[in-house]
């Protein structure tokens, strides 16, 4: 029997939810990593059994990466730090912002994005990582400036048809892309506005909040910016503003439907100076025509004033059909839709701040389903 696995990383630990795909009640356990902030989590289904990866951040012991091959029944931590800056960089790890298993084209590769902003690459499914030097030493780096939440590399996208093509996003440096496996990198921000800079369209320096890939065309990307929602149809070469139909184009989160081309989801916030749901309404907005139009999805969500902010990695989909859509907020609420956003259910409340949410469908043996 296939089941859905849901990971919710919070300010004080990781909560794991499971349910039979398409039916039944959710069962939650946790917190794992009690009192640790979990900024990143991933479900890697490329091996004989799924591997869970979690970026914990203990206020006492510091940041670390943990893995589990038994769906969280036990966890392993390397004897030496899995992610560590080489001594000659003069940098030290503050946080792991992102964990991204590559696709089948690179079966053992996992990427980690960090603060300070850097990309690390693992070839053993996340047990050890090496710094990607060419991005760390990029000539623009001396001009990168931290955003309000720090200087973090928070997005990694890989091309399932080309293991040498990787796209990353950095706050506040923007989008960068490599086509040669990380040997060289180029900014990919043309058309994205930086409203807080004198030059509103610089080559780099945009405060990009999140980037995701379209299901039908891997060259089509959706970007949530610090003001502005954008689409690219050429893998980031040029960006077009598609936020005109939203109540606000400020926000952090964006997710793409796993199967339906042109379909994506955002959670608008009022403003950078007022980071609560747009118009104080709890609403996910969906486009089914690549951003030409947007519709609010509210059935089952609170209908009164609401102040639960959804962060950049706290909105996601699974790969069921119909797809499940999930989000968590800083009120400690966790919501799910099993009909692609048409209706919602409250799965949990009174959690610590929800920082990241990840979901996947597993078959009865714990491997890929759906």
Written description of the protein model:
The protein has 370 residues and is mainly β. It has one domain (3-78, 92-362): YVTN repeat-like/Quinoprotein amine dehydrogenase (Methylamine Dehydrogenase, Chain H, 7 Propeller). Helices cover 1% and strands 42% of the residues. The strands form 7 sheets. Strands 19, 20, 21, 22 and 23 form a 5-stranded antiparallel β-sheet that branches. Strands 3-2-1-28 form a 4-stranded antiparallel β-sheet, with no helix packed on it. It has a 4-stranded antiparallel β-sheet with strand order 7-8-9-10. A hairpin with a 2-residue loop joins strand 8 (110-115) and strand 9. It is globular and about 50 Å long. It starts with a strand and ends in an 8-residue tail after the last strand. Residues 365-370 have low confidence and may be disordered.
Please give the structural blueprint:
Blueprint: E1 3-10, E2 13-20, E3 27-32, E4 37-44, E5 51-58, E6 62-68, E7 95-101, E8 110-115, E9 118-122, E10 130-131, H1 133-136, E11 152-159, E12 162-171, E13 174-178, E14 186-187, E15 208-213, E16 221-225, E17 229-232, E18 240-241, E19 250-256, E20 264-271, E21 274-277, E22 284-287, E23 295-297, E24 315-317, E25 325-328, E26 334-337, E27 345-348, E28 354-362
Antiparallel strand pairs: 1-2, 1-28, 2-3, 4-5, 5-6, 7-8, 8-9, 9-10, 11-12, 12-13, 13-14, 15-16, 16-17, 17-18, 19-20, 20-21, 20-22, 22-23, 24-25, 25-26, 26-27
